[in-house]
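ingest -> validate -> predict -> emit
validate: passed (alphabet ok, no gaps, 429 aa)
predict: started
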Amino acid sequence: MLYAICDCDNCFVSCERVFRPDLEGRPVVVLSNNDGCIVARSREAKALGVKMGMPHYQMRRSFGDKVVALSSNYELYSDMTARVMSLVRKEVTEFYRYSVDEAFCVLSSMTAEAAKTWGEKMSSYILRATGMPVSIGIAPTKTLAKIAVHFAKTYPGYHGSCVITDSNREKALSLTPVGEIWGIGRHLRPRLERSGIVTALDFASKPEEWIRNGCNITVERTWRELNGQDRIPDEEDAPKKSILNSRSFREMVTDLPTLRTYIANFASSCARKLRSQNSVAGTVGVFISTNRFNPELPQYNGSSETTLLTPTDSAIDIVDCSLSVLDRIYRPGYQYKRAGVVMLGIRGHDGIQPDLFEYSPERAEKMHNLDKTIDLINRLYGRDTIVTLAQVYQQSDSSEKGMQFDRIMRHDLRSANPTTRWSDIIRLR
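emit:
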């Protein structure tokens, strides 16, 4: 049996280039929330010397206009990667999403030669269908597959697909620094290097007794994976046990009405995530805080939570509950910089114990149908096409390009969303 990992190359930058062909071959970076620092780089930007995590202002000072900077556009990235993953899922019998841009597949009946051909065709097909470059690493274990996908990304001669087998395993490991091994990371690298372990082959060649005496069970599992023993279990997408939505504001907030609008948007987003994983929440928490990096200002951190009588995923109910909690913890006279909403006590719909006195099956069905309809409309016409009244910012311009939720953050360099918003659809001359 072989594992394949499908990984989008320079994912955020690649998503931007699908609709901006003028960015091909140019150094491009994507910035974090509020356009703070660099979270993604093109190969050209890496070659130029742009570092991951570098502040935007520092990059501008060092490289000027040589690098194209874009605000993060997670709505676009989520939709584009979902399209890629849907194509992969159709081609395999077992599929496990590992991250936003990576997924593991099981190639149970393929030889190494057949898997190599499949990987090349799959990479080419996804590029034609979505415009997204994808590399595929194939090996007998997931850890070796992660190493294989690195070679597929790095060397064009692999044509988007690299296979590691017993015949080339040692060579591949000898070319892989120990700090780049999945499951080892840079935090363990110094200790291993002090023991003379520089490459993945050095680590894999250590005797089992040495590994057991000096390493924890996770590192031992990685060692076995490098030696061709399948030890990492397959994991289906699991519902989150908690959901948090929080942001730092572009400007200080002092008044309660503005805070209520922000909290309503956070709460509505949490409710949408609950519905996306078919879950309900039993507890709603809210927190607000001032800017701890400015000690000259009065400091206050407020937080509280409330337990719902009947767990729910209703946007209206969760927004109302969140605003009630906010009213309890708000204190006037402070300049607030950050706030958030958290969902706890998450569970499936089965086994819910409704409140004996307040629960109404008719109302619950009505709220369910309402949320279902709103989700459909927002999916077709763009996020926040329909929102609760509490989510509407005062003096909001409906013709403004950004949606309600995006007003919280700075995103002056954000691209359009042609795959999810009718207003941004591409027009051909």
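Residues 396-406 have pLDDT under 50 and may be disordered.
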